[in-house]
Design a protein that fits this description.
elongated, 8 helices, mainly alpha
């Protein structure tokens, strides 16, 4: 594009173009010597063509990414499913803990103790049924995330755009610093979590 700048500066600083009637009657195909900068004009046209092709490809890839559909459907639906799982989990936990507290506080010497325990166990079993609905919601959330990841990977591969390294995200940096200071790095998965035996060895 430096060549484009030089050519435009030359056109600005040169004498104004003045055409006469005789000039208009000339052949439409002047010789290369009669038109200064003909080679540069051809190179400029080639570069502009490359830029136009890249812009057209970029627009096509953005359209394939379907950002409007992601923002209006996929992401809101994902947030809704995760919020529902969180709500169902809290409700089931409250029911289980309430039933357990009722059984623990029941009078074991009373004649209705067995019936009270049985009722509490049934309440716990019913509350555990939330896991099936939560699993279905999480499966939909996983499919939505996989679709978003697939589109982003295809967009990055097609456009060849690399991640910006000089971008300063203050909130992300503050979250990382807070996690390091407060040692907040959880919950961990089973393959990453430290076993209880390893923790016990630290105190032996």
């Amino acid at each position: 594009m430096r060549r484009v700048g030089r050519l435009l500066r030359r056109r600005r600083t040169g004498p104004p173009l003045q055409l006469t009637a005789s000039d208009l009657r000339r052949s439409a195909k002047p010789s290369a010597s009669a038109v200064p900068g003909q080679h540069e004009l051809q190179q400029l046209a080639t570069e502009v063509g490359h830029v136009a092709a890249y812009v057209a490809q970029l627009k096509a890839e953005i359209a394939a990414l379907r950002p409007a559909e992601l923002c209006s459907d996929r992401l809101p639906g994902l947030c809704h499913e995760l919020a529902a799982v969180d709500c169902d989990t809290k409700a089931a936990t409250d029911r289980i803990m309430a039933a357990a507290e009722t059984m623990l506080s029941a009078d074991r010497t009373s004649t209705g103790y067995a019936a009270s325990v049985e009722a509490g166990l049934l309440e716990i079993l019913e509350a555990c049924a939330f896991q099936d609905l939560a699993g279905q919601r999480l499966a939909r959330a996983k499919r939505a995330l996989a679709e978003i990841e697939r589109r982003l990977q295809r967009f990055a591969a097609s456009t060849g755009v690399a991640d910006a390294t000089a971008h300063f995200d203050r909130e992300a940096i503050m979250r990382e610093v807070r996690g390091e200071v407060l040692l907040v790095d959880g919950p961990q998965t089973r393959d990453q979590a430290i076993g209880q035996s390893a923790v016990d060895e630290l105190f032996d």
